[in-house]
Structure formats: structure tokens, C-alpha cells
Amino acid sequence: MELYKGRPECISNRLDKEIRVYDLLDKLEIGYERTDHEPTDTMELCNEIDKVLEVVICKNLFLCNRQKTNFYLLMMPGDKKFKTKELSKQINSARLSFADEEDMLKYLDITPGSVSIMGLMNDKENAVQLLVDEDVLKDEYIGCHPCINTSSLKLKTADVFEKYLPAVGHEARIVHLLGED
């Protein structure tokens, strides 16, 4: 795997939703580094990507309440365990579960394995609430997918929260997750 600055030179073999991410980041003048890779379906591959990017890629979970009336995108450090009960208490939403693939496509235009904060650019109705574990904010950089799991990006945390989120009309709700047994 190689590390590149900015968008791919050849975009003919890229999905439209990935190109839209690069277009928006470029428009917002947000610098980023990128690596291309096989689909990330194992932690070993994620660890290799982390080494290339020199950042821990965030764990991004797409969640909903039992009634499917509230949807959440949770960003947390990749090495932290997710405890449903711990988050449910903080956001006053009992019975959180993973949202369906259909809802991922409907609200974020992403598929399982590609969940990313970049998908919020596709949520024009603000149906998805962004939840961010406070530990994510401690790092200078964030690692994420550009709405597809065959590339990964390294972005400045400040750029994501000060430029990207306001541009896509979303605010982060900060949560405190211990992730302990």
C-alpha cells in the first residue's frame, strides 16, 4: 500500500459516491492523504492501513432505536469496545441496535464495511445524529473511508469538525465511552 496526497489521478474506475467525497474535500480546501487497498473486512488489514496512514482508523457504527425513528452514526477509537448500554444511557435511547443495510443506503449512501463520517454529506434531511466519543477529538488526525471500503483517508481532526461538518449541516454530540467489560 502506498500513501498519496489528494484524489486519485484516474477516476474512471471509482464509484460516484467516492468521487463526490474528493470533490467536496477539495472544494472545502481540506487537505488529505489517501491509500487504496483491498476491501477492509479483517482487523489485520485495518491494522496495516493504520500503519500506512500513521493514524488509527475510527470505528464507525450506524445505529438506530427499536422503532427506527432515530438514527445515529457513532465515531469511536477503533481499538475501543462498544457497549450499547453505556451509550443508550447518555443519549436517552433505549434498545439501540445496528441499523439495516437499507437504511445505510437511504440516509448515507453507504454499504456495510464502508460506514464513515463522509456519508453525512449524503444526509440532506439531517436524519442521522452524529455521536463522537471524546477520545476521537484527542488525536490530531482522523482516519476514515471515502464512502467506500477500498480506500482510506487521513484528515486533520480540526478540518473535519470546523470545516466539513458545518458544510454538510451536521453537528457532533460528544459522548464519553469507557468501552470496558
Q: How would you summarize this macromolecular structure in one to three sentences?
A:
With 181 residues, the protein is an alpha+beta fold. Helix content is 28%, strand content 23%.
Notes on the structure:
The radius of gyration is 15 Å and the shape is globular. It contains five helices and nine strands. The N and C termini lie far apart (35 Å). The protein has a single domain (4-175), classed as YbaK/aminoacyl-tRNA synthetase-associated domain (YbaK protein, Alpha-Beta Complex), CATH 3.90.960. It has helices spanning 16-27, 43-53, 84-91, 101-108, 157-167; strands at residues 4-5, 32-36, 59-64, 71-76, 97-98, 128-133, 141-144, 151-156, 172-175. The chain is an alpha+beta fold and 181 residues long. It has a five-stranded mixed beta sheet. The mean pLDDT is 91.
Any key phrases for this structure?
YbaK protein, 5-stranded mixed β-sheet, 181 residues, alpha+beta, 4-stranded antiparallel β-sheet
Question: How would the blueprint of this fold be written?
Answer:
Layout: E1 4-5, H1 16-27, E2 32-36, H2 43-53, E3 59-64, E4 71-76, H3 84-91, E5 97-98, H4 101-108, E6 128-133, E7 141-144, E8 151-156, H5 157-167, E9 172-175
Parallel strand pairs: 4-6, 6-9
Antiparallel strand pairs: 1-2, 2-8, 3-4, 3-5, 7-8
How would you classify the helix and strand content by structural class?
Answer: alpha+beta
- CATH names the topology as YbaK protein
Task: Report, as a whole number of angstroms, the end-to-end distance.
Answer: 35 Å
CATH class: Alpha Beta
Q: Helix count?
A: 5
Sequence stretches where pLDDT stays below 50 over 5 or more residues? none
Quickly count the domains. Answer: 1
Please state roughly what percent of the residues sit in beta strands, choosing from under 5%, 5-15%, 15-25%, 25-35%, 35-45% or over 45%.
15-25%
Helix-strand pattern: EHEHEEHEHEEEHE
Shape: globular
Percent range of helical residues: 25-40%
The CATH homologous superfamily is termed YbaK/aminoacyl-tRNA synthetase-associated domain
Strand segment count: 9
Mean pLDDT: 91
CATH 2nd-level architecture: Alpha-Beta Complex
InterPro entries: ProX/PRXD1, YbaK/aa-tRNA-synt-asso_dom_sf, YbaK/aa-tRNA-synth-assoc-dom
GO molecular function: aminoacyl-tRNA deacylase activity
Family: Belongs to the PRORSD1 family.
Protein name: Ala-tRNA(Pro) deacylase
